[in-house]
Amino acid sequence: MEYKLSLLQTLQAMLIWDNMPTTALAILFQVLLPMLLFILLKKYRLARNIVVGLYVGAIVVLLLYPIWGSGWRINGDKLNMQAYGFSADISIPAMEIGMVPTDGEWEIVIMENGAALPALFEGKFRLANKKSVLAFDYGNQEKRLFIAANNKYYLIAYPETTALYKELIKLGAKEKKFTNIK
User: What are the pLDDT tens digits along the chain (182 aa)?
Assistant: First the structure.
């Protein structure tokens, strides 16, 4: 069982309409300004257009590269998680897991090192309850899977989070209700 972000999902995460001001800025800087620049430079030499196109393309690829392909995979008795250049192999039998809401003490409040897009949080974050977590949160889900293992904490959310939760329980993870764990 695994889930990895495709290039299309990465682009969709950048342009989800839940956060209109962020989305408007993203569209302005990532789509409209390069198009306008391309149109203005088209009146000049073709070589300049090619250079500008390559430059804009390189910027987009560099922005998407750390995000594209992030996700998780169950490999034997380990859960491998990749998020914005971070990787973790978590022993499933050592896990305590539970479903938590996205608000209150479980709300992501500070990005320590990662990427925060309108529909994607991945990397190292701090929650309202002061816990530092490695997070892979895609698609603005209502609930997240919270994992505690070896004094480290992880968050996973994607469209089928409940299926992962059930699979981890089946593979030996311990179910726990997480409340007020400051």
Answer: 888 877 777 766 766 545 555 555 556 666 666 776 677 666 665 566 666 776 777 677 666 666 777 889 999 999 999 888 788 999 999 999 999 998 899 999 999 988 887 788 889 999 999 999 999 998 888 899 999 999 999 999 998 999 999 999 999 999 998 876 55
Q: Determine the Cα angle at 74 with ends 68 and 77, to 5°.
A: 145
The one-letter amino acid code at 121 reads: F
- Residue 93 CA to residue 154 CA, distance in Å, equals 15
Cβ proximity of 124 and 132 under 8 Å = yes
Token pair, residue 107, equals: 């709300």
**The two structure tokens encoding residue 14:** 């950048």
Global confidence as pTM: 0.74
Cα distances (Å, whole numbers) of residue 121 to 32, 50, 60, 89, 101: 25, 33, 18, 19, 15
Quote the crossing angle between the two packed helices 33-42 and 46-64, to the nearest 10°: 170
